[in-house]
């Protein structure tokens, strides 16, 4: 798990590293620029490219000046360096690197006002105007310059963060560099992981600049980033004498007459993720389809609900395609009144909770709510921004003692301990109907198999995204049914490697 930091915490990590490694701040800047250059050389090896580098007079600008020097030394001789000379203030390392650059045969231009900058043709534009030091909205010449650069045609690469984009928190204005590629130091900024950054970041990459990881681990932050290696630590191989009776029985409560498909998707996903037994509590008219699609699954008739033995099940998944009818509402009431183990609550089950907040009290501890943005807002009220949603989710997951899986490009998992894990896997090719139903089946299955709920959720969310990502290499769009077929293979791959 990587701990994610705010801009202030990153500065503290810089300072700590400088004092304790120890390393001169100018050397750290050199190391950062070198890490940037390594990615750059890989991506843009053509030395004939025309490059513009825009630098501020702080440390982000300092990075830009080092990058300019390093590019020159690497044989890029069509580089023009521009300095935004809008204030007297300048950092020591900026000044030092300006002197170093002046000793090379590199052209340096000063921009005193944005209007002086004519349109220039170039292949690449490096944005090193402002970085994590941003402390207010861009105004005046800064705003004009950024807007002008955005109109330039070259491929834009931002150093550390696009100029004008705050590392975390709400946007301050729309004067922000629209970068094609952002190369960030040590950690992705929190805002990279939220849709608000999407007009400004097409792609991002993180490079390690050797900040003190022990210091970072000791920093207090609720935000973490998890990836393949974290999942691989706890995914369990099947044991020699294990049988279906030991691998959990999951009950899927889903579907309505018009939306049987959702019930089939979550039931099949649950089965293919490895639950020992899966039973579908679905409308009778779906029985044939269930038998055809998932013959391994069992069926329980809603007409016999009074005879159900709730204790038979390790976990219940409820909601996909359930509808919000009177009958669905009764089903949810029954489940909440009788089942005391974790419940995975999705889609219409969330919508029903939103209609009847009294039911929230009945949700067993360590249950899992899996809303997308709209369901989240229906349940917890309208939010004007993702940061507001994050604040609510951090609070509600602690208050209700549940996990909240807020689905997105980088799905967030909020825990009863007040932690927010960002999932690293996934692909926009997954943005099509039914994908969330599959996730519900997967989470339910992992809980059935005995993973602690937190691990079950992480494992399901990661492997769901990972399967989508792998298929997206071959498919324009990943239909939910195709993803389901992939689950056992993906889990095996994660287990072995
Ligand atoms: N030693 C270090 O601390 C390292 C810093 N690094 C680089 O340094 C950057 C941070 O540098 P700085 O803290 O100097 O800050 P920046 O270079 O981001 O900004 C410079 C200064 O601009 C001013 N400013 C902020 N918002 C403004 C606005 N809206 N309009 C006009 N002026 C504004 C502030 O006074 C700020 O200190 C990082 O993003 C990274 O690129 C890297 O070189 C790694 C090491
Ligand atoms: N752009 C995207 N990038 C990564 N994952 C995505 C993207 N769009 C959707 N997904 C994933 O697909 C799933 C969609 O869930 P949901 O909106 O509930 O779909 P449905 O209701 O159709 O089943 C979520 O797990 C989400 O993370
Ligand atoms: K920048």
Based on Cα principal axes, name the global outline. Answer: elongated
Output the CATH homologous superfamily of the largest domain: Ribokinase
Order of the strands making up the biggest sheet: 1-9-18-17-16-15-14-13-10-11-12
Amount of beta strand? 5-15%
Q: Determine the mean pLDDT.
A: 97
Output the number of helix runs.
16
At CATH level 2, the architecture of the largest domain is 3-Layer(aba) Sandwich
SSE blueprint and pairings:
Layout (H helix, E strand, L loop, with lengths): L1 E2 L3 H14 L4 H19 L7 E5 L3 H15 L5 E6 L7 H11 L4 E5 L12 E5 L11 H12 L3 E5 L21 E5 L18 E4 L5 H6 L4 E4 L1 H5 L16 E5 L6 H13 L4 E5 L5 H7 L4 E2 L15 E4 L7 H13 L4 E3 L1 H9 L12 E2 L3 H8 L5 H15 L2 E4 L5 E3 L5 E4 L11 H14 L4 H20 L7 H17 L1
Parallel strand pairs: 2-3, 2-5, 3-4, 5-6, 6-7, 7-8, 9-18, 10-11, 10-13, 11-12, 13-14, 14-15, 15-16
Antiparallel strand pairs: 1-9, 16-17, 17-18
Helix pairs in contact: 2-3, 3-4, 8-14, 8-16, 11-12, 14-15, 15-16
Bound molecules: ligand NAX, adenosine-5'-diphosphate and potassium ion.
Ligand NAX binds next to helix 2 and helix 3.
Pfam families: Carb_kinase (PF01256), YjeF_N (PF03853)
Keywords: ATP-binding, Isomerase, Lyase, Metal-binding, Multifunctional enzyme, NAD, NADP, Nucleotide-binding, Potassium
EC number: 4.2.1.136, 5.1.99.6
Q: Would you kindly provide a written description of the structure presented here, covering whatever features stand out?
A:
- With 497 residues, the protein is of the alpha/beta class.
- Helix content is 40%, strand content 15%.
- The strands form 2 sheets. Strands 1-9-18-17-16-15-14-13-10-11-12 form an 11-stranded mixed beta sheet, sandwiched between helices. It has a 7-stranded parallel beta sheet with strand order 4-3-2-5-6-7-8.
- The longest helix is centred in the C-terminal third of the chain and has 20 residues, at 453-472.
- The two termini are 18 Å apart.
- The structure holds ligand NAX, adenosine-5'-diphosphate (ADP) and potassium ion (K).
- AMP binds at residues 407-411, 436.
- Residues 10-217 form the YjeF N-terminal domain.
């Amino acid at each position: 798990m990587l701990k994610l930091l705010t801009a202030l915490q990153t500065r503290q990590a810089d300072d700590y590293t400088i004092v304790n490694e120890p390393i001169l701040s100018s050397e750290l800047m050199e190391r950062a620029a070198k890490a940037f250059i390594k990615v750059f050389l890989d991506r843009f090896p053509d030395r004939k490219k025309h490059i513009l580098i825009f630098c501020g007079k702080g440390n982000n600008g300092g990075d830009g000046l080092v990058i300019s020097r390093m590019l020159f030394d690497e044989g890029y001789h069509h580089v023009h360096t521009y300095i935004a000379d809008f204030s007297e203030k300048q950092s020591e390392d900026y000044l030092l690197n300006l002197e170093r650059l002046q000793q090379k045969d590199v052209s340096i231009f000063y921009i005193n006002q944005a209007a002086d900058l004519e349109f220039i043709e170039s292949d690449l534009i490096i944005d090193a105007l402002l970085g994590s030091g941003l402390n207010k909205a861009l105004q005046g010449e800064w705003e004009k310059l950024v807007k002008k650069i955005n109109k330039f045609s070259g491929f834009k690469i931002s150093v550390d963060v696009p100029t004008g984009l705050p590392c975390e928190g709400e946007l301050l204005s729309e004067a922000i560099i629209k970068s094609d590629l952002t190369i960030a130091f040590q950690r992705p900024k929190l805002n990279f992981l939220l849709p608000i950054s999407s007009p400004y970041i097409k792609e991002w990459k993180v490079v390690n600049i050797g900040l003190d990881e022990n210091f970072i681990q000791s920093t207090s932050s609720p935000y973490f980033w998890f990836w393949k290696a974290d999942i691989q630590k706890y995914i369990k191989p099947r044991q020699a004498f294990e049988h279906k009776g030991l691998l959990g029985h999951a009950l899927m409560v889903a579907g309505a007459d018009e939306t049987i498909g959702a019930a089939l998707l979550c039931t099949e996903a649950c089965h293919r993720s490895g639950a020992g037994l899966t039973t579908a509590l679905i409308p009778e008219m779906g029985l044939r389809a269930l038998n055809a699609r998932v013959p391994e699954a069992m069926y329980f008739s809603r007409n016999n609900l009074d005879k159900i033995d709730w204790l038979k099940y390790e976990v219940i998944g409820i909601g996909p395609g359930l509808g919000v009818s009177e009958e669905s509402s009764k089903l949810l009431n029954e489940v909440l009144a009788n089942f005391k183990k974790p419940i995975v609550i999705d889609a219409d089950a969330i919508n029903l909770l939103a209609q009847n907040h009294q039911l929230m009290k009945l949700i067993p501890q360590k249950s899992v709510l899996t809303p997308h943005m709209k369901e989240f807002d229906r349940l917890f009220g309208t939010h004007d921004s993702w940061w507001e949603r994050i604040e609510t989710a951090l609070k509600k997951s602690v208050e209700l003692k549940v996990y909240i899986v807020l689905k997105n490009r980088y799905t967030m998992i909020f825990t009863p301990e007040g932690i927010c894990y960002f999932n690293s896997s996934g692909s926009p090719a997954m943005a099509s109907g039914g994908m969330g139903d599959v996730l519900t089946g997967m989470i339910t299955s992992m809980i059935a198999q005995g993973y602690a709920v937190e691990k079950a959720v992480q494992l399901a969310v990661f492997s769901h995204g990972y399967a989508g990502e792998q298929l997206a290499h071959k498919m324009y769009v990943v239909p939910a049914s195709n993803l389901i077929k992939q689950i056992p293979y993906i889990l095996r791959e994660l287990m072995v490697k």
